[in-house]
Write a structure and sequence with these properties.
By secondary structure, this protein is α+β, with helices and mostly antiparallel strands. It folds into 2 domains: 2-24 and 31-217, no CATH class; 229-498, Thrombin, subunit H (Beta Barrel). It contains 12 helices and 27 strands. α10 (499-512) crosses α12 (530-542).
């Protein structure tokens, strides 16, 4: 990448009236500016030279030559390639000419349809020192390999689209300003070709991206913008926000108290991003010791059965402390491929969880970039498991869209008020038929499930599967899992499985399989939790007469 982008980096160029006055100290003298580059048409070997006496865009420079004007090309249909050999990189028509290597070559072609949005002609051209340049791979990353990322597929023949951006602006602003990318990418992220575990959010500033090769990644299923539009047709999105404000007033009292927020932030250290190879991303949390809890549906497309065990067929990692886009304080721990325990019913009428074991070998851990040390694992949350609140305030902590860790205060919807809550959201668009994409999964609305799970409304979407749900006292009571939908009577209610139900099922399986060593660890973990005392006893007694040959219930993937 450094070799390719060296063509784009030159000494800061002097400016004319379009260059900001405050940049003159960067070495941009208004006098004596001279920049030369060559151009040719794609089916013509003849080369023409252009001399720029003031900063301008490549297109503006081309229009100073009769050879170009004679073609009568439409400005928005022009594709500009850097150099002929390799055909690796394309730049926008408004690419500043002083970012091109002196005497460099550009190859011009014209397409029958628009390839680039019209730019603001008054946009100032800055000195080279004020710009960041990075390349976007034309092959998309996670969940984007088959998606249309550009307004014209003509760019697919290139390896990269080079993007220039003013320092301090966000990635999203840079791509919108570029004009060649689709504007409905939603909450996309970028992955670094040199470090696939690095996730750059759409609102990340471009300052540290100079010279990088990046891929666009999208949330699993629909991108978030499409999801929002399908969930809230017309002006109903704003109405839904207004309704959410009513609920927020109910939770404001608890979660505006500093001591509660401080406690939640401390507990959030146990929450991690779960990266399942190049399949998907979710959220998990330390349950006890070196075991994490997440949703089983994250692995439905990448598991094989090995005897009475299930093996993950791709690498899985847990990333802790991913709280800043730079990831400077985060660290990664490898997950063992044998699933410790899982339970998944695709129909949505049973539990959906997976318990995974983290590798304790220091060689499998990635140190935090900031400290260069491999931190100890945070404490498990099983010991602070509490009862499911009937109503009131709660809070979810997770990694929506695979991004940085976020916190969403929510208001629990009581069982008897679920229909009322649903009607509030759908009465403005009851003639619309849509599917609810919540946390990356579509779960059919089963009456049995509705009665067992905890329901609420949250804006934690794709990537949040497996997030812990806390009550107002900082006790964890649920595993954030999915949402409900119907074909003709749409609902916008999300749900969590009670942690107590998962705990009892896990203990029963340990007892059945005679995994006494792990069972003793679990008992030790919860010995001081009075709330779990009775459920533990009940689970153990329920299998006291089970024969050793009784099979361990496998993961359902159908």
């Amino acid at each position: 990448m450094e070799e390719k982008l060296s063509k784009l980096t030159i000494n800061p160029a002097p400016s004319q009236e379009r260059v900001k006055e405050e940049e003159e100290e960067d070495g941009d003298s208004r006098e004596g500016y001279l920049r030369c580059f060559r151009f040719q048409f794609i089916n013509d070997c003849k080369t023409y030279k252009i001399t720029c006496k003031q900063p301008c865009t490549v297109l503006e420079a081309l229009k100073t030559r009769d050879e170009y004007n004679a073609k009568n090309y439409s400005d928005n249909n022009i594709v500009i390639q850097l150099g002929r050999a390799g055909k690796d990189i394309a730049v926008a028509t408004h690419f500043p000419c002083h970012l091109i290597e002196d005497d460099g070559l550009v190859v011009i072609s014209c397409k029958p349809k628009q390839v680039e949005e019209t730019q603001d002609p008054q946009h100032a051209i800055l000195p080279q020192s004020r710009y960041i340049t990075f390349c976007i791979d034309t092959v998309g990353g996670r969940n984007a390999k088959t998606k249309k990322l550009f307004i014209n597929n003509a760019f697919k023949r290139f390896k990269y689209l080079c993007v220039y951006a003013e320092k301090e602006i966000t990635v999203e602003e840079a791509l919108k300003r570029d004009g060649r990318f689709r504007k409905d990418l939603g909450n996309f992220t970028l992955s670094d070709n040199a470090d696939s575990d690095l996730c750059i959010e759409h609102d990340h500033q471009v300052n540290d991206l100079d010279g990088k090769e990046l891929k666009i990644c999208l949330p699993r299923g629909l991108n978030l913008k499409q999801w929002t539009e399908s969930r809230f047709p017309g002006d109903s999105y704003q109405k839904a926000l207004d309704l959410r404000k009513e609920d927020f007033g109910k939770i404001q009292q608890s979660f505006s108290e500093v001591h509660r927020v401080r406690k939640l932030l401390e507990l959030s250290h146990s929450v991690c991003k779960v990266v399942v190879g190049d399949v998907c991303q979710g959220t998990g949390f330390i349950l006890f010791d070196n075991f994490i809890l997440t949703n089983a549906h994250l692995f439905e497309n990448c598991v094989v059965q090995d005897g009475d065990k299930w093996q993950v067929t791709t690498d899985v990692h847990a990333i802790f402390n991913y709280e800043e886009p730079s990831g400077r304080n985060s660290y990664r721990v490898k997950v063992k491929k044998t699933i410790t325990d899982c339970h998944y019913e695709a129909s949505g009428d049973e539990l959906d969880y997976a318990i995974l074991e983290l590798e304790l070998d220091p060689d499998t851990q990635t140190a935090a970039p900031q400290t260069k040390q491999k931190p100890k694992l945070p404490p498990g949350l099983l010991k602070i498991c509490g009862p499911v609140p009937v109503n009131g305030e709660a809070c979810i902590i997770g990694h929506p869209a695979g991004g940085v860790k976020k916190l969403d205060p929510i208001c629990i919807i009581e069982k008897e008020k679920r229909k009322e809550a649903k009607d509030k959201y759908v009465d403005t668009y009851q003639d619309h038929v849509f599917s609810l994409y919540s946390v990356g999964e579509v779960i059919k609305n089963q009456p049995r499930t509705k009665n067992q799970v905890v329901t609420y409304n949250t804006f934690m979407y794709h990537g949040s599967s497996g997030s812990p749900v806390f009550d107002a006292h900082g006790r964890v009571f649920g595993l954030h899992t999915g949402g409900f939908c119907k074909e003709t009577d749409s609902s916008v209610i999300e749900y969590a499985h009670p942690l107590i139900a998962i705990f009892k099922t896990f203990v029963i399986k340990l007892k059945k399989s005679k995994n006494d060593e792990l069972l003793e660890k679990v008992k030790e973990e919860v010995k001081n939790n009075l709330y779990l005392k009775a459920p533990l006893k009940e689970a153990l007694e329920s299998v006291s007469d089970v024969k050793p040959s009784d099979p361990v219930e496998p993961m359902e993937t159908s």
